[in-house]
Batch of 2 targets.
Target 1
Amino acid sequence: MNLPTGETETQPPKHAGASIRTYLAIGVVLAVFTAIEVQMPTWLAADRPLLVVSLLVLAFVKAAFVVLYYMHLKFDSRVYSGIVVLALVLISFFLWLVSYGQFPSP
Amino acid sequence: MSTTRPGAASQVMHDAPRLPSRKLAVWLFLGSEIVFFSALIFAYIVLRITSPDWPTHPEIAEVLNIGLTAINTFILIVSSVSVVLALEAITRGNQRGLRLWLGVTFVLGVIFLSIQAYEYVHLIADGLTITKSPIPDTDTMFATTFFTMTGFHGMHVLGGVLTLAIVLVKAMRGLYTREHHEGVELFGLYWHFVDVVWIILFTIAYLI
């Protein structure tokens, strides 16, 4: 396929990843979720626990889309996923250690 | 007759696919960044829960410009899309597309930083600093943690923009090709990570 500048676009080498359409669709989803998030404090002002849970779920879904698709973690070597998991496990363990016994049970 | 023969274990190691070392290094770096930002966010949450003088969300919403920051969040999301499009372009050998989308990302990154700087100036002018709070009957813990979290993130964005300037110059010189464009991919990983951190920070600091 010839581009307007005269360059010739070649077929990409076979590499793991989603299509451009998928990437754009995810971008739209992220933008829509952001718009919903901004309105949620108004919609759920009377139910704060539901508001907090809903916002956190939306945030982590957005983050997951970026990590899995934009950062290619879904398609790449499991070693990279392992690094992310290890980091989360390490920080979770450390935070549990420093906060153990600090918060009395209800 | 040869007396050397690789053992089974060394043969397995020899045949195992090797990970690109630079990409592995970037992921290890991002792993350390996950630990860093998780600790910051956890500290914010703990201080918020335990501080008796933390402002309520309506009080926070009056001080922070949530609408403007939402626009900034949108800008960062779009910049992630443009980075992905830049990488897709160079995997097809499309040099013009690479430069275009990297340029778009650069502009969006600068806009993000400009808006954040504008926000900081106005927050400080309104009295929200690490030594005083404009919200009655509250201490400075909110301001301190807010500026720490968003400030560190802003510094990471600045580092990303500076790195992108180098990547963009190399792209303008045609140094990336369909076969060799690792620098674009590695920059993209860092930039997307910065976007992920902001997604979490925006929710926790501005909306909750």
Target 2
Amino acid sequence: MSIDTIVFFTLAISSIISAILVITRRSPIMSVVYLVLNFLILAVIYLTLQAQFIAVIQVIVYAGAIMVLFLFVVMLLNLGKEEALTEKITYKKRVAVGLVVVMLVQIIVGIMMSDSKFTRHIAPNAEQIGTVEGIGKMLFTQYLFPFEVTSVLLLAAIIGAVVLAKKRIDG
Amino acid sequence: MLTDFGRVFLFFIIAAIFVAAGLIVARLLRPHRWYPGKLTTYECGEEPVGTPWVQYNIRFYVVALIFLIFDVEIVFLFPWAVVYQNLGMFAFVEMVIFLVILLVGYAYVWRKGDLEWDRPEPEIPFIQILKRFIS
């Protein structure tokens, strides 16, 4: 087993464990903390895939800003006693679990059946593509239009945030 | 052979060891005499009252959301700053268009008053109102 494989499996298993801890913790705050851990591990996985810029952004935006937002939501909801948050297993949830299992099996079968040539290899020049410079070059020449459209998307997000907040305060 | 991020990882390990070592040494050295008063949450010497679950002002959420959006905007500025030397004027115009579109959003937020903090009116005690009335 090569060192890459060992690193990958260590990261993959720890990310799955942290993801499971997110949904099993009683305290929502603990869930958020484990979600931060999960995001950080994902950032390292991006690094192993030669996507340095995405990895750093993952830490700054997801583990930083989005988690603050999550914490505010948790505090806004004012859940109070955590013990009161027990859920009932309803008919709908059973169906959902069944569907998830079916999808998981499909994914596993899909990976098993697929040609390993496509799944195992990273592009030879991946090291140059993943850097900030590489992304900048691509973004501001070839993918110029999507980049400009992103600003419109962000504008829509700003207006959406304002409209949503207004509704909550008034109503 | 260590890659650059391998070095970063080394720093992580050293930081973790540093924290763990500090806690372990403190545990070994400190006296173990605790009583219920010591185990309560420290609130600047006050006795803690109520739960830490306070309903936050929704303003925090709105500001965090707007911050997040402009955070993503800054993310786009990093690669731009790196390649700016090579692309020159072209990149500059691109970024100006990008920023102008986002400034429209900023102006909208400002105009709608979402950057303002709605402070609750301070309640003046009745006695002070009386005093003002008399003088």
